[in-house]
Write a structure and sequence with these properties.
The protein is mostly helical. The chain is built from 22 helices and no strands. The two termini are 34 Å apart. Its main location: nucleus. This is SWI/SNF-like complex subunit BAF250 C-terminal domain-containing protein.
Length: 461
């Protein structure tokens, strides 16, 4: 348990010589050479080339907090746009911005609920039709050709154009007129099965609602980076239910909205207790602990690098809290398999996120260590991270410490003995991890296993 208390909130942490990364972003998210060149260029560039900046005075929030909340709650396009733009400016901070005039949510009562309502409104509109009530046959006006709603006047116009040419003077029969009437009803019969009401938004209105929801999610994400807001947001059940539902529907939901929701959870993970979903706090969306973990697993299996890296980091942060273990342990075999796959990825940030999560999981209990050691390719890929090596020394150090945790279990020693030569090679070739691999070899060769110890105790060997 000592390793789990040593500042695990960094997720897939980076080296001590590397500047602290922005929370919610895995280490190594930029390539080593390009990142170094970019940082060097930024430091060498004069400040006059950075362009204009827009700053909002810190007293603006105190003077307009009620107006901001009421503007969001009004739902009016102009008021909502003004409020979202204002909050975006107030919540945004550059990575190296040292301003102290952060905007704590406690200063603006009702703001978080108002922003969540914007997202909920969009999700109500974006709900696929197959998840709504089944279409029903309408009986009102069933004997008329058209109802007067929608675009049915086109069917009426086509009928009027055809009837004079085939009127009574031309000798057309009543059967032909009836057939034309029935064909017109067939062309417009789709309206009877359409559940779209009179006041539903058109495509432009839906797009504007979507943009507002994305802007609201970006503001919530920005607020989650501020330490003053972490406790409030991590204990706000409606906030957690909304963001977890967004990542649960990542296949159909807007990608930027899902990314903002995922980064929000990653930022709040060190303070997140999954038991909040079964607490007595009022619930708006029926999210359970199991559904929340399944949503994270869905993101972990995503092919998008930003999503599965953040999901791996999220799992590594959640498992630090012992109260979350009962909900995560049933998924440990699936988590191990996916994290081992990520270690074989060419993306350095994916390797870092996977190693960071496995480092925390290996410290949970003996069962996790046994399952990880028996996971195919797990030990090979941990060694590959160290041998390559990964450009972030902290990642290699954690990979070595995972191997040390695995060898501490007597049942794993027979598996690890097959890698004795590889351990010895790293011991003599890389002085940075020589102490760790010296302890690993000592555990493998010097200490008797459990079966030998029992035999000596019984037979006096």
């Amino acid at each position: 348990m000592q390793k789990r208390d040593q500042g695990k909130s960094g997720g897939a942490a980076g080296g001590a010589a590397t500047p602290a990364a922005k929370r919610g972003r895995p280490f190594g998210s930029t390539s080593g050479s390009s990142a170094g060149a970019g940082s060097a260029a930024d430091t060498a560039a004069p400040t006059t080339l950075l362009g204009p900046t827009l700053q909002v005075h810190s007293s603006f929030t105190d003077q307009n907090n009620k107006r901001i909340v009421l503007a969001i709650q009004s739902g009016l396009k102009s008021e909502l746009t003004w409020a979202l733009n204002t909050l975006t400016l107030l919540s945004f901070k550059e990575k190296d911005d040292m301003r102290k005039d952060a905007t704590p949510l406690a200063k603006i009562p009702g703001l978080l609920d108002a922003l969540l309502q914007v997202i909920d409104d969009w999700r109500d509109l974006a709900l696929p039709k197959e998840h709504q009530k089944k279409p029903r046959v309408r009986t009102l006006g069933v004997n008329s050709i058209v109802s007067g709603f929608g675009h049915e006047y086109k069917a009426l116009g086509s009928l009027n154009n055809t009837l004079p040419n085939s009127g009574v003077g031309s000798g057309s029969s009543a059967a032909e007129a009836l057939a034309q009437k029935n064909s017109a009803k067939v062309r417009s019969s789709g309206w009877w099965f359409d559940e779209d009401g009179l006041f539903n938004l058109d495509d432009e209105g839906r797009a504007e609602k979507q943009q507002c929801a994305v802007a609201a999610s970006n503001i919530i994400r920005n607020f989650s980076f501020m330490p003053d807001n972490e406790v409030i947001m991590a204990q706000h059940r409606h906030c957690l239910e909304t963001v977890f539902q967004c990542i649960e529907d990542h296949i159909t939901e807007d990608e930027e909205l899902v990314t903002n929701a995922l980064e929000t959870i990653v930022n709040l993970a060190p303070l997140l207790d999954l038991r909040i979903f079964s607490s007595s706090k009022p619930s708006y969306i029926k999210i359970t602990e199991k559904r929340a973990v399944q949503a994270i697993m869905g993101m972990l299996g995503s092919p998008y690098k930003a999503w599965h890296c953040a999901a791996a980091e999220l799992l590594g942060r959640l498992i630090i809290n012992p109260d979350n273990e009962p909900f995560l342990l049933p998924f440990v075999p699936q988590i191990h398999k996916r994290l081992v796959d990520l270690m074989s990825s060419l993306a350095l940030d994916a390797q870092a996120a996977a190693v960071g999560a496995l480092y925390n999981l290996a410290e949970v209990n003996m069962d996790c260590r046994l399952k990880l050691a028996n996971e195919r390719w797990a030990i090979d890929r941990l060694l590959k991270v160290i041998r390559t090596p990964h450009p972030v020394p902290e990642v290699c150090r954690k990979a070595a410490m995972i191997l040390e945790s695995l060898v501490s279990e007597p049942q794993n020693r027979s598996l690890l003995l097959a890698y004795e030569n590889a351990f010895a090679e790293i011991l003599f070739s890389d002085g940075r991890y020589s102490d760790t691999f010296a302890r690993i070899l000592y555990e493998l060769t010097s200490r008797p296993n459990s079966k030998m110890a029992a035999a000596r105790g019984v037979w006096g060997m």
